[in-house]
Amino acid sequence: MSAESLLVVESVSKRYGETLAVDGVSLRVGAGEVYALVGANGAGKSTLIRMMTGLAEPDSGDVTVCGEEMRRRPLAAKRRVGYLPEELYFYQRLTGREYLRLVAGLKGADDARAAEEAEFFELKAVEGKWVGGYSLGMRKKLGLAAAFIGAPRVLVLDEPLNGLDVEMMRKLRLRVERERDAGAAFVVSSHVMSFVERAADRAGVMSGGRIVAEGTPAELRRLAGMPDEPFEDVFFHLAK
Predict the structure, then answer these.
(1) Which pTM does this prediction carry?
(2) Sheet holding 68-69, edge to edge
(3) How many angstroms separate the CA atoms of 15 and 24, rounded?
(4) Contact 38/202 with Cβ under 8 angstroms?
(5) Which tens digits make up the pLDDT trace of 187-214?
C-alpha cells in the first residue's frame, strides 16, 4: 500500500436501535490501491460505506478523506469522493445527458467530462432519453459515469457489476486498474469473487459489523488454508 492514505477509517461504530451495524472498524486505503469490501448481506458493508461517503455519521470514530475530516469538513471531504451506491435513484424526467451535466456542474467539471464518461460507458445512444426509461444495465452505467466525473481521488463503488454484461465488466475492471495506477484509491464492494480476486490489492472480510480478516487475496487464501479452491469458498470460510 502507498504511504499516502487517501481514506482513513478510525474505530467507527454505528447503531440503529438495538442493532450494532458497524462495530469499531478501522481501515486505510492508500493512493494507488483497490480495497475490496466483502461480506454477506447484513454484515455491515452498506452502513460502513455510507459513513465513508458522508451519508451517515458514525456514533463514534472518524472518517478522513484526502486529509479532510468528514465530521468537521463534510463538504470538503465529499468533494474528493466519487460514489456509486448499490441502489440507484435518479431524476426520472431528466435525460442521461442532462443528469451527467448536472453532476459535472456540482463537481466543478465541464460538460466535456460528462460527454467523455457517457462515451466510455457506452451511453451515447441513450443519453437523449429520459432516465426513467433506462434498463438496469443503463442505469448502472449512468451511475458509474457520474461517479468517475471530476477525476475524484477516492472512488467508492458499491456492487458496480450488477446489471453489466461481461464486456462492460471487463472494461470497468481495466478502467479501475488504470485509475489506480494513476494514483486513485478505490473501495469496491462486490459479491463477484472472481472480480475481487483479480482487481483488488487488498480485501477486508466483514461479518457481524467487524472486519474479521484482511489482506491481499493471496494472503487470505493462505489464512484460510485454501490455495486452490474458488475464492468464494475462501470468503465463506473466513466469514464464518
Answers:
(1) 0.94
(2) 19-30, 5-16, 60-65, 68-69
(3) 11
(4) no
(5) 999 999 999 999 999 999 999 999 999 9
Task: Judge contact between 208 and 39, C-beta under 8 A.
Answer: no
Average pLDDT over residues 217-228: 95
Say which residue the cell 459479491 belongs to.
191
Q: How big is the CA angle at 194 (ends 192 and 195), to the nearest 5 degrees?
A: 70
Which DSSP category does 210 fall into? E
Distance CA 51, CA 191 (A): 20
Contact 64, 7 (CB under 8 A): yes
**Spatial separation of the C-alpha atoms in residues 174 and 180, rounded to whole Å:** 10
Q: What CA–CA distance (Å, rounded) separates 205 from 212?
A: 6
Q: H helices within the chain, ranges in order?
A: 45-52, 74-78, 96-107, 111-120, 136-148, 166-181, 193-199, 217-224, 231-238
| Chain length of the chain | 240
Distance from C-alpha of 202 to C-alpha of 231, rounded to nearest angstrom? 13
